[in-house]
Write a structure and sequence with these properties.
alpha/beta
């Protein structure tokens, strides 16, 4: 029988991962098992793809973002050399559908792959594969469920569940609203609860709610909506979200807690924020700070975000509810200067946030900034043309050049060395042993156990070593090399987390089986773990995007 292999490419394979690449398990659910059997899952963050186990005629699905597309094209070439049919999708393929074809793929899926993937597999089997399939934006109630039975729960810190697709904002540095739309599409409540219950039964006690914006319709967001019809839609969505929170609290396991991504605007809606903590049991949230300066927020097209002391107050109000905040800060927005980044670093330390990431600005393909900067590049020097940006993109198709993110732009106010230096200082100071210990003494919730505080210390060190300069990415780890100490810290943090927080059911009525070795044969861990519980339940949905 023809084999289907789904590959999440990565530039580095440390053997463990913080977050499950959600699309893998959703597209696994969308795979027509009646025609090809269960798909084989290969997450290169865990194990390297091994082309020796591919046979002619096998179908290989590869999901790529701009950050891991080079690794994806490597996998595609290797699979094609073995006679496989290669189908590529994801954010990058949606933005540049011709590029994967030029790189050797047989077909490309744009948009959500939940429905289109099955059609592409069927056509590949019948010899009628088309070059392009448009998955579009699948309605929330039609997003495919995940195949969590194909995941090894021992090698991920957090599984990811989606409750709503899309984001109503239009930040200039973000491609979500371009590729996934500005009209939020809530998933079915029963499906979310079903998935969380399955993950609970697999031993997880924390889950990532991988929504691009967990609070798309708070009172503050509704109040600033200029369109009367859209304002009514947001009011309806807010009511639906609060009802969903109630249903989740009633039916989901009480012993599982959540992490998510949201805007600081949540503080405008005390009822919503309280329900997040008490009903959804959210205990950690990534908050898009982007910049503490008003100028930085204007350049990011996020002027409604609080700035300076107001942002610090918002962070502290969120943490006062019991939700630990991971602040996400961008270094290198067009208005940034060396002095501005130094001021921002002090704000980050004073904010009281328990975790922070400092990403280097990059005009990602698909974003408003990217299209404007490319227009500036193409029309540079033309009479009468007024550039929209002073920061410039240095190379076209820079994502194919394997360069550092910081080398893709010529910043308006800083040299590359200055930007790299200030970004490194942000990471080094926030995650210095002194600052971590200070947060443990003064900022941790009083109910945290000694083990929890130790796990926080170890995980903070590992987080800095793995994600410094890049930030968290669900698709893969962006560092090209990872030293022995970093690998040991990652393994230690995973062990601490499992021991303190994760109820492990492995060995309690759970059968572990190896699949055919489609990943690196040198791994000491099982190549692919298939978990079969006594009472399996189905998972939830997402799209072939991340």
């Amino acid at each position: 029988m023809t084999k289907v292999v789904l590959v999440n490419p990565s530039v580095c394979s440390p053997g463990y991962s913080f977050i499950t690449p959600r699309w893998l398990f959703v597209i696994a659910q969308a795979t027509p098992v009646d025609l090809v059997g269960d798909p084989v899952i290969v997450d290169e963050t865990l194990d390297r793809f091994n082309p020796a186990c591919i046979a002619p005629g096998d179908i290989i699905g590869i999901g790529i973002s701009s950050g891991n597309c080079l690794a994806g094209y490597r996998v595609a070439r290797a699979a094609k050399s073995r006679g496989a049919t290669v189908i590529m999708g994801g954010v990058h393929a949606t933005i540049f559908p011709d590029e994967p074809l030029e790189m050797g793929a047989d077909a490309v899926i744009t948009g959500n792959g939940d429905i289109a993937w099955r059609a592409a597999v069927r056509d590949a089997l019948h010899g009628t594969l088309r070059k392009r399939y448009d998955g579009g934006r699948v309605p929330g109630n039609a997003l495919a469920k995940a195949r969590w039975d194909l995941m090894d729960p021992r090698r991920y810190l957090f599984p990811s569940v989606q409750t709503v697709a899309g984001c109503p904002e239009n930040c200039s540095f973000c491609s979500v609203w371009v590729t996934d739309g500005r009209r939020p599409r809530p998933r079915l409540t029963d499906q979310v609860i079903e998935e969380v219950t399955e993950l609970y039964n697999l031993g997880f006690r924390f889950v990532i709610f991988a929504d691009d914006n967990f609070n798309p319709a708070t009172l503050g967001r509704i109040a600033r909506e200029p369109s009367a019809s859209r304002r009514k839609d947001l009011e309806k969505l807010r009511t639906e979200r609060l009802h969903f929170f109630e249903e989740y609290d009633r039916a989901a396991p009480k012993g599982i807690f959540g992490c998510t991504q949201m805007t600081a605007e949540v503080v405008s809606d005390p009822e919503y924020l309280s329900a997040m903590y008490h009903k959804m049991r959210i205990r950690q949230a990534l908050v898009g700070v982007e910049s503490y300066s008003r100028e930085g927020l204007e350049s990011a097209n996020k002027p409604w975000n609080p700035a300076g002391e107001n942002m610090i107050e918002a962070i502290q109000r969120i943490q006062a509810t019991g939700i630990v905040v991971l602040t996400s800060i961008i270094c290198g927005l067009e208005s940034d200067t060396v002095q501005g980044l130094q001021t921002m670093r002090r704000f980050a330390l004073d904010s009281g946030a328990s975790i922070a990431q400092f990403t280097i600005y990059n005009p990602l393909p698909g974003t408003k900034d990217y299209y404007e900067m490319m227009a500036d590049r193409q029309h540079a020097g033309q009479p009468g043309y007024a550039p929209k940006h002073k920061t410039r993109i240095v190379h076209e198709k820079y994502w194919l050049m394997g360069r550092r993110l910081v080398d893709t732009i010529q910043h308006a106010n800083m040299t590359t060395d200055e930007l790299v230096s200030e970004n490194r200082k942000c990471w080094d100071e926030f995650y210095s042993a002194r600052e971590i210990l200070r947060r443990i003494r003064t900022g941790m919730p009083s109910q945290w156990s000694v083990g929890g505080r130790i796990a926080y210390f170890v995980s903070s060190i590992a987080f800095r070593r793995i994600f410094a300069g890049h930030g968290v990415a669900a698709d893969s780890i962006r560092k090209e090399k990872m030293g022995l100490l970093t690998r040991l810290l990652l393994k230690l943090s995973l062990g601490c987390y499992n021991r303190v927080y994760k109820h492990r059911r492995l060995g309690l009525g759970v059968q572990v089986t190896r699949a055919a070795g489609v990943v690196g044969a040198a791994s000491a861990e099982p190549h692919l773990i298939k978990i079969e519980t006594e009472a399996p339940t189905e998972g939830a949905a997402h799209r072939m995007r991340k």
